[in-house]
Amino acid sequence: MPYIKIELTKEGVTRQQKQALIKGVTDLMTNVLNKDPQLTHVVIQEVELDDWGFGGEQVSVLREQGITADKK
Amino acid sequence: MPYIKIELTKEGVTRQQKQALIKGVTDLMTNVLNKDPQLTHVVIQEVELDDWGFGGEQVSVLREQGITADKK
Amino acid sequence: MPYIKIELTKEGVTRQQKQALIKGVTDLMTNVLNKDPQLTHVVIQEVELDDWGFGGEQVSVLREQGITADKK
Amino acid sequence: MPYIKIELTKEGVTRQQKQALIKGVTDLMTNVLNKDPQLTHVVIQEVELDDWGFGGEQVSVLREQGITADKK
Amino acid sequence: MPYIKIELTKEGVTRQQKQALIKGVTDLMTNVLNKDPQLTHVVIQEVELDDWGFGGEQVSVLREQGITADKK
Amino acid sequence: MPYIKIELTKEGVTRQQKQALIKGVTDLMTNVLNKDPQLTHVVIQEVELDDWGFGGEQVSVLREQGITADKK
């Protein structure tokens, strides 16, 4: 407790970025809810672009059209 | 909103079939609940046959016995 | 196989709409992948508006601002 | 994309704490991965203490024994 | 590690049965994989009968027809 | 009904161990809740060590430090 699942499209997330996500989420649980990091589990799940649908379309197709998930 | 996870055994689902699943589920959310496709996310998760259990048995073993998940 | 989870904000989805979602998703698995309906499980999970975040904000707050998830 | 599920034991998490969790996780996705907040969904799932098991025991029983999930 | 989610229809599962499920799953992780119980989390999620679909139908309807999930 | 997801770190779980997990969990549902094995689905999800965080750290780093998930 707590358990956090992060689902992301598989687009080159680096090991350092994964470390930052894990540390950031764990710290957030401590800072907001005072949860013990030794009880906090985080799982990152990368999803192939063919397997994520948005707006009725595969993300792989959206990417072929130049549409990204980056902050505007 | 909404977010739909489709978990399937990994048995040769094609890119076109995945597109049909994503479009079909997204359209269903719109037709039944009037949800905006731009807010609808669909994730397909393919599971290895060794990793799916049914009736206490691995699906890989069931397939070796000729048992499929096809509509009768 | 397959197993489908539909996560929705808790905003008055009726029993009939749930039946339509379950039937629609199950039929989709059969039509696209020829899956046996007797092996297809669908779970609907309604989420309180305070518990769903989008764009860094709680959906309950977005609704207070008149922002809906309806198709434009 | 991304989609983040936060599962927590149901122990009085306030609306403000949920807002802080949603904002914190969404900001983390932007800061680490440059993800657009308008594509980032966060779902908080509170779990009854009888329904969360840790160390082979129900958390409700652990709490009766004075064992908490707080940071030491 | 590991994290186990048990999803069940909401049909009167007692506190003792939940304890048995949690203990049984945790022991299984230790016996089969030698996992430390202090690292094993189990979450039980009860689903309303209207919200679980099987064979294209709501389980609530199946129950009204006398169809149960009991072992034959 | 029921549907059980077992998430594990990807550390050489053998086919036989997966069979034992599937059989053990399915039997548990029958013994405790009298559930029909033909309605019980189990999915095992193995997670890369870089993708599982515990105590704010990646499990891959913990393993490099000689820290395991084995029962003490």
Provide tags for this entry:
alpha+beta, homohexamer, two-stranded antiparallel sheet, 4 strands, 72 residues, 4-OT (chains A, B, C, D, E, F), Tautomerase (chains A, B, C, D, E, F), isomerase (chains A, B, C, D, E, F), two-stranded parallel ribbon, isomerase activity (chains A, B, C, D, E, F), Macrophage Migration Inhibitory Factor
Characterize the structure shown.
The structure is a homohexamer of 72-residue chains. Chain A is of the alpha+beta class. Chain A has a single domain (3-64), classed as Macrophage Migration Inhibitory Factor. Helices cover 35% and strands 26% of the residues of chain A. The first copy, chain A, contains 2 helices and 4 strands, in the order βαβββα. Chain A has helices at residues 15-33, 59-64; strands spanning 3-9, 41-47, 52-54, 57-58. In chain A, the strands form 2 sheets. Chain A has a two-stranded parallel ribbon. A two-stranded antiparallel ribbon of chain A has the order 3-4. In chain A, α1 (15-33) links the parallel β1 (3-9) and β2 (41-47). The radius of gyration of chain A is 15 Å and the shape is elongated. The model of chain A has no long low-confidence stretch (mean pLDDT 96). Chain B binds chain C through residues 1-9, 13, 17, 20-21, 24-25, 28-39, 52, 54, 59, 69-72, and chain C through 1-9, 13, 17, 20-21, 24-25, 28-37, 39, 52, 54, 59, 69-72. Chains A, B, C, D, E, F: Keywords: Isomerase. Chains A, B, C, D, E, F: Residues 2-60 form the 4-oxalocrotonate tautomerase-like domain. Chains A, B, C, D, E, F: Its EC number is 5.3.2.-.
